[in-house]
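To: structure subgroup
Subject: Chain for Friday's discussion

All,

I'm putting the inputs and outputs inline so they're searchable in the archive.
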Amino acid sequence: MHFSFWDSARRRLHRIRRGFSRLWLNYLYQSLLATGVIFVILLLLNMEHAVVIASIGATAFIVFTMPRNITAAPRRVIGGHIIGFICGAAFAFIPHSTVLVAIIVYSLAVGTTVFLMVALDAEHPPAGGTALGVAITGFSLSVMVASQ
């Protein structure tokens, strides 16, 4: 029997709806918690730190939708963002007078963050965004408080 693409898509959609109808309250709860966390972060930071806010948004997604995932473990979330913040802040102090030098500095901030997260067993993918955001926007106490 030959099934078309649309038959396959219809079966997948039916599976999604069936699972959703059982767990919709959990999904709503997760979404509201993530919304609350991002709301507080946005209150603490201004929009010039949008890249850091985006990485924290990715963390909220991981923590609230996949809490059993290894990257959602508190040690990895907190440790990864601390490493990302420190690396981003350190590389933000390196003067970069040209676009090419700036790109190299920003890339090194992320690469160093990845290296240290792996070495310290604190892998958390959104922390690379924290390093990039802090390297681009510079050191700030408000970013330090929000990224922890």
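Points worth raising on Friday:
Helices lie at 5-44, 50-65, 74-92, 99-119, 126-137, 141-146.
The chain has one domain: 5-146.

D.
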